[in-house]
Amino acid sequence: MKNLKFFIVIIFFIAKLPFASLAQPNLNFVQVNNKLAQNISANNKSTSIEECTSLQFKYAQLLNTDVEELVNLKLYDFIEDWWATRYRYGGTSKRGVDCSSYTGQLIQNVFGISLPRTAHEQYAKCNRINRMDLQEGDLVFFNTRGGVSHVGVYLGNDYFTHSSSSSGVTISSLNDTYYAKKYIGGGRVDKSYNSSKSENILEEEEN
After folding, report:
1. What pTM was estimated for this model as a whole?
2. In what order do the strands lie in the sheet with 183-189?
3. Structural domain of residue 162, as residue ranges?
């Protein structure tokens, strides 16, 4: 009788082994797959960064943002092409350009929208946008000489590009003390809008 009970216990124990094995996760398998997933993620991120251009790295640093965020290369090619062009009141070329001509040419070339010539006229054609809702390509306006007298193009992360009277074509922050004080508001141009003026703001000045 005792032997019978012993064999029953042994058989029951053996029968339990496969189920116990199935119930326990294979930790080595889990660890290997976790590492594989991490490596795939890391490789994808590395590949994404490797595909970025030197131009993206430059402006990512200027805008204090991730390089992968800068995807509108046409925009940054335009800024780079005009970078440090001196400010000239009434100017429309790389010999000198004022703020509204620069924004007009940028919006025309990058976004295909023709704007009026002056900052005040551009402001009048915009739908008002709260600062927290600004998006790449929106216009930002300032009161530097009374009324709407300066304009730039918003890039993101509180930065905008413009033709500054002191630095020429550059990038500045809305958080800079000067611009924060002079800021009027942001505006978004309807993509269906095109200036009815015959003046071609893309035409360079004659010699």
Report:
1. 0.72
2. 126-129, 183-189, 139-142, 150-156, 159-164, 168-173
3. 67-189
